[in-house]
Amino acid sequence: MRGNISYHLVRAGGMVSVKGFFRVKDVLQLTGLTYRQLDYWDRSGFISPSVAAAAGPGTERLYSFRDVVALKVAKRLREEGVSLQRIRRALAYLKENFPEVSEPMAGLVFITDGQGIFVLTDDPTVMVNALRGGQLTWNVDIGQVAREVARDVTHLRRAAAQG
């Protein structure tokens, strides 16, 4: 990393961030993206640098910490089989329906099965399907259900033994 990156960690809204900026070389190393992917994502408006955009030959893109987080999240979704088109659709939905989250890719928790993109809500048992118009889905903790059944079985056995 270059000396122009400040390594002061800042906690804002529960998220750790780094003050300063990252050059393209650093972003490629931190995210594992290729230059071609990073360039395409910027030129197509998918995820662009928020510190400084390229303004022609000889200028460089400068990315914030949150930009790097967003890029890494997008890369992970791609690695899990989610198409760029689906990620774009989900991002458009989230920006429109969650305006209080300025940078959804860097500020929300995503879950995917390789096809859908789900976003965790404040309720840990409820997720929003960002590709199906915000359709809610519920998370069932199988371990919790198994513990409840085991407890109920114990109660039934006790009742049968007493009865």
SSE order and pairing:
Layout: E1 9-12, E2 15-18, E3 22-23, H1 24-31, H2 35-43, E4 62-63, H3 65-79, H4 84-97, H5 104-107, E5 110-112, E6 117-120, E7 126-129, E8 135-138, H6 142-162
Antiparallel strand pairs: 1-2, 3-4, 5-6, 6-7, 7-8
General description of the model:
The structure is a single chain. With 163 residues, the protein is of the alpha+beta class. The chain folds into two domains: 79 residues, Multidrug-efflux Transporter Regulator, Chain: A, Domain 2 (Orthogonal Bundle), CATH 1.10.1660; 83 residues, no CATH class. It is built from six helices and eight strands; from the N terminus they run βββααβαααββββα. It has a four-stranded antiparallel sheet, covered by helices on one side. Strands 1-2 form a two-stranded antiparallel sheet.
What is the structure about, briefly put?
The protein folds into two domains: 1-79, Orthogonal Bundle (Multidrug-efflux Transporter Regulator, Chain: A, Domain 2), CATH 1.10.1660; 81-163, no CATH class.
Q: Kindly provide the radius of gyration, computed on alpha-carbon positions and rounded to a whole number of angstroms.
A: 22 Å
* N- to C-terminal distance: 72 Å
Q: How many strand segments? A: 8
Which structural class fits the helix and strand makeup? alpha+beta
Helical proportion, percent range: 40-55%
Mean pLDDT: 82
| Uncertain runs | 1-12
**DSSP helix count?**
6
Topology order in helix (H) and strand (E) letters:
EEEHHEHHHEEEEH
- Strand composition percent: 15-25%
Write down the overall geometry.
elongated
Could you say how many structural domains there are in total?
2
- Strands of the widest sheet, in order across it, are 5-6-7-8
Largest sheet: 4 strands, antiparallel
